[in-house]
Specification:
By secondary structure, the chain is an alpha+beta fold. It is 21% helix and 38% strand. It has a 13-stranded antiparallel β-sheet, sandwiched between helices. The chain is globular, with a radius of gyration of 18 Å.
Length: 248
């Protein structure tokens, strides 16, 4: 599994890490062209700015979204999806065998390309679809056990399309973050008091990368803090699942 993951990551961005803005010559040049094309398309998207309530829109000062991570294979939020990039290195998988009484989602990954694939989080669903308990584990920190609702807390009637979670940011302090649902399965990620720090955009149509797979969505984001990125990806998984169950 580690060899397959490493091969896919190498095929995605080349065998050595590079900055998101760099374009090195060689066999991966075409892929970087695709990335630049998609960034240009993202920056001109009419829904990128002012997606919150008008009272909050004036407070938004968007930092540049210099990093990206791709969502591949299955569009099922809970199963068969790979999340990967090398700028910086990211690799997670979602696996959800459906049980008769209990259903569990295991989110596994690697902290670097030469590491073992290990579980980073587990979702324990009530029955087969209702949110239950979770465990999140980051290397070097105690496991965090809580209810999954912690990642999708309501923000009240004034922000009906938003769900909040709390996490430590790059500054080491705890902040409120939230995913804001847009039409057609897109989402924006915000940090208090209302700064957009990430955008999740579906690929229309799917983008097939040889030796990698089908990219069905990309998350562009502005921060370098792997524990926050993991928590944001987990919260996005739950948001997408709940919205699918509610027919949104």
């Amino acid at each position: 599994m580690c060899q397959r993951a490493a091969a896919a990551i190498d095929a995605l961005h080349g065998s050595s890490p590079r900055s998101p803005s760099s374009v090195a010559p060689g066999p991966w040049h075409g892929l970087h062209f695709i990335k630049r094309r998609r960034q240009s398309r993202m920056s001109s998207h009419p829904r990128i700015r002012y997606t919150l309530a008008p009272a909050m829109a004036q407070s938004i000062v968007d930092p540049p979204l210099n990093f990206e991570v791709h969502f591949l294979d299955s569009e099922d939020p809970r199963h068969g999806c790979r999340v990967m990039s090398t700028a910086p290195f990211v690799f997670y998988t979602f696996d959800t065998p459906i049980g008769f009484l209990d259903t569990h989602t295991t989110i596994s990954g690697m902290i670097r390309v030469d590491a073992e694939i290990v579980p980073f989080a587990t979702f324990n669903w009530f029955g087969s679809s209702a949110i239950g308990t979770m465990t999140i584990t980051w290397p070097g920190t105690p496991p965090h056990n809580a209810h999954m609702g912690e990642l999708v807390a309501s923000m009240g009637p004034t922000m009906p399309n938003c769900r909040r979670f709390r996490s430590h940011g790059p500054d080491g302090l705890a902040h409120d973050f939230w995913w804001h649902r847009l039409p057609n399965g897109d989402y924006d990620l915000y940090c208090e008091p209302g700064t957009r720090i990430g955008v999740f955009r579906r690929a229309r149509p799917l983008e097939h990368i040889p030796n990698v797979g089908d990219i069905f969505a990309t998350l562009w984001y502005s921060f370098q803090h792997p524990p926050l990125l993991l928590k944001a990806i987990l919260a996005l998984c739950l948001n997408r699942w709940l919205d699918l169950q509610e027919g949104r």
